[in-house]
């Protein structure tokens, strides 16, 4: 099978460079940046101090010795992340600037020059820059992402109210609980340690077009969640884990929660 390759116009890059680049990011993000090797790709987030998800992002260390790191973030949050990182700089010897290289993804096969997606092998790989011939569209990629069942946190929950664990960051290698401090760590670690996770983003299936964003999912007469983004037959939803058993409906239509192979929900 020929691998599919698409350019993601919905993503943009930020370059963080300087002697303190890795330690600067390491102390802010949910991911361990200091142990990265050249070319390695990791998934993480920048949270608010109360632990809410502000920016989901991929991190790639381009030149670890010299301190050059790329951040792959939603294009419509790109400027806001630059502003936020610049606010945290203080006396750190770092430069934070836009990088205009394109973002590419591949799936359904390996392609040289693409770093494996750290969330799950089913999501293929990512590449930044270069002259890459594409044979698929971003819409094809989004359909594949939904089929895999992986949330797009910025697209699915753009209101900054979601906790990273609700978006499955703990199950998709987006949080390093051993690395020490990061912004929002206290709330995130407490939720994981106590198992106080009531809601998660999960894929749902149904017949026909996707329900409206925000449409209520019901289990009988009880609210069981809400629809996020989707397309015909598939969508992401934020659902209550204690109300998944039984007949679920949205706008009177039956829906089913689909549990991807990679997703192991703890009891």
UniProtKB/TrEMBL annotation:
Residues 198-263 form the CAF17 C-terminal domain. Keywords: Transit peptide. This is Folate-binding protein YgfZ. It comes from Brevundimonas kwangchunensis.
């Amino acid at each position: 099978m020929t691998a599919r390759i698409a350019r993601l116009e919905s993503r943009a890059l930020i370059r963080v460079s300087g002697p303190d680049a890795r330690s600067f990011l390491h102390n802010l993000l949910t991911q361990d940046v200091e142990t990265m090797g050249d070319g390695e790709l990791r998934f993480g987030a920048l949270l608010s101090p109360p632990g809410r998800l502000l920016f989901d992002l991929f991190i790639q260390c381009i030149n670890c010795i010299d301190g050059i790191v790329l951040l792959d973030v939603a294009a419509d949050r790109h400027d806001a992340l630059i502003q936020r990182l610049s606010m945290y700089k203080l006396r750190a010897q770092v430069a934070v600037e836009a990088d205009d290289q394109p973002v590419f993804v591949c799936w359904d096969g390996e392609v040289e020059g693409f770093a494996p997606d750290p969330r799950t092998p089913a999501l293929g790989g990512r590449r930044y820059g270069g002259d890459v011939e594409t044979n698929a569209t971003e819409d094809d990629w989004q359909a594949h992402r939904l089929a895999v069942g992986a949330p797009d946190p910025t697209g699915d929950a753009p209101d900054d109210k979601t906790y990273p664990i609700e978006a499955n960051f703990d199950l998709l290698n987006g949080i390093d609980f051993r690395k020490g401090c990061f912004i929002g760590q206290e709330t995130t670690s407490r939720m994981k340690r106590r198992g106080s996770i009531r809601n998660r983003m999960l894929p749902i299936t149904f017949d026909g077009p996707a329900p409206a964003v925000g449409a209520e999912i019901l289990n009988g007469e009880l609210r069981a969640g809400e629809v996020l983004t989707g397309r015909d037959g598939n969508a992401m939803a934020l659902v209550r884990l204690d109300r998944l058993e039984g007949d679920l409906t949205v706008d009177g239509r039956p829906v089913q929660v689909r549990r991807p192979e990679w997703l192991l929900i703890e009891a």
